[in-house]
From TrEMBL:
It comes from Actinomadura mexicana. GO terms for biological process: cell wall organization; cobalamin biosynthetic process; peptidoglycan biosynthetic process; regulation of cell shape. One of its GO terms (molecular function) is carbon-nitrogen ligase activity on lipid II. Substrate binds at residue 128. This is Lipid II isoglutaminyl synthase (glutamine-hydrolyzing) subunit GatD. Pathway: Cell wall biogenesis; peptidoglycan biosynthesis. InterPro entries: Class_I_gatase-like, CobQ_GATase1, GATase_3, Lipid_II_synth_GatD. It comes from the Bacteria. Belongs to the CobB/CobQ family. GatD subfamily. Keywords: Cell shape, Cell wall biogenesis/degradation, Glutamine amidotransferase, Hydrolase, Ligase, Peptidoglycan synthesis. Residues 7-201 form the CobB/CobQ-like glutamine amidotransferase domain. The active site is at 94 (nucleophile), 194. The lipid II isoglutaminyl synthase complex catalyzes the formation of alpha-D-isoglutamine in the cell wall lipid II stem peptide. The GatD subunit catalyzes the hydrolysis of glutamine to glutamate and ammonia. The resulting ammonia molecule is channeled to the active site of MurT.
Length: 238
C-alpha cells in the first residue's frame, strides 16, 4: 500500500483538449512512475459525473461553445467544487483556466458564469493572443522560467484572493495591463500555456506532484526536456 497513490482526473476531453493538452496527463503519470508513485487516470467525458476523490484534476483549452457547455456541466455537477474544498490539486489551461473563475466572455462577448473556484474574471479582448509565451514564475512556487504556446481571445483580471502565476517576458498571458500570466490560489492553478504546458515545463509538473503527495520528490534527469526548453526559449528570447 502506498499513501502516495495519485488519482488523476482528466476533465471532459470531449470538450476541453486543444493543442495537445492531454500530454499533461501523460507527463504526470510518467514523472510519478519514475519516482515509484503509482497513478490511476480517469478520463471523464462531459456526460459523466465528476468524482470528488481525485488528487489532481486537469482541464484543457477549448473553443468558445464547448467551453460554455463545460462550465454549465461542471457547475451543475458540483464534483470539482467538492474536490477543491477537500484540497485537491487543479491544473487548468486556457478555456479551463477561464471557466474556473467567476465569469468569462462567451462567443459574442456575453458574460458567462464560471465555477468561482479561482478569484479571476475574464472577458473578451480586442485582439487574439497567438504565439509563444515565456514568463518568470512567482518565487514561492519554485518553478523555473515557463515556456508555452498561447491562443486565446480572453483577457483575465486577477482578484485579491488569487495571485499571478508568472510575469510575462514574451507574449501576452492574461492581457490585464499588469503583464501577468495565469493565476493560482492554494492548489488551484490556471495558465494560458498550451504546448503542452507540462511537457515543456517539467518543473511545473513536479510542483503539481509535490502538492498532490504533500512532500518533496527527488529530481529527475531532464536533459531531453531541457533541450526542448532551450530551443523554444532561444527561438523567442534571442
Ligand atoms: N475560448 C477561449 C478564448 O478564446 C479559450 C481558448 C483556448 O482554450 N485556446 O479565450
Amino acid at each position: 500500500m502506498s499513501s502516495d497513490r495519485i488519482k488523476i482526473v482528466w476533465i471532459y476531453p470531449d470538450l476541453l483538449s486543444t493543442y495537445g493538452d492531454q500530454g499533461n496527463t501523460i507527463v504526470l503519470e510518467r514523472r510519478a512512475a519514475l519516482r515509484g508513485i503509482p497513478t490511476e487516470t480517469v478520463s471523464l467525458r462531459s456526460d459523466e459525473h465528476v468524482p470528488a476523490d481525485g488528487d489532481i484534476y486537469l482541464l484543457g483549452g477549448g473553443e468558445d461553445r464547448p467551453q460554455i457547455l463545460a462550465a454549465q456541466r461542471l457547475r451543475g455537477d458540483g464534483g470539482l467544487a467538492r474536490a477543491v474544498q477537500s484540497g485537491a490539486v487543479v491544473f487548468a489551461v486556457c478555456a479551463g483556466y477561464q471557466l474556473l473563475g467567476h465569469e468569462f466572455g462567451g462567443e459574442e462577448g456575453q458574460p458567462v458564469p464560471g465555477l468561482g473556484l479561482l478569484d479571476i474574471r475574464s472577458g473578451r479582448g480586442e485582439q487574439r493572443a497567438v504565439g509563444e509565451i515565456v514568463g518568470d514564475v512567482a518565487g514561492e512556487l519554485n518553478v523555473p522560467r515557463i515556456t508555452g504556446f498561447e491562443n486565446h481571445q480572453g483577457v483575465t483580471q486577477i482578484g485579491p484572493n488569487a495571485r499571478p502565476f508568472a510575469k510575462v517576458l514574451h507574449g501576452v498571458g492574461n492581457g490585464d495591463g499588469n503583464g501577468f500570466e495565469g493565476a493560482y490560489s492554494g492548489r488551484v492553478l490556471g495558465t494560458y500555456m498550451h504546448g503542452p504546458a507540462l511537457v515543456r515545463n517539467p518543473g511545473l509538473a513536479d510542483l503539481l506532484l509535490r502538492w498532490a503527495v504533500g512532500r518533496d520528490i527527488p529530481p529527475l534527469d531532464d536533459s531531453w526536456a531541457g533541450r526542448l526548453r532551450e530551443e523554444r526559449l532561444q527561438a523567442v528570447m534571442s
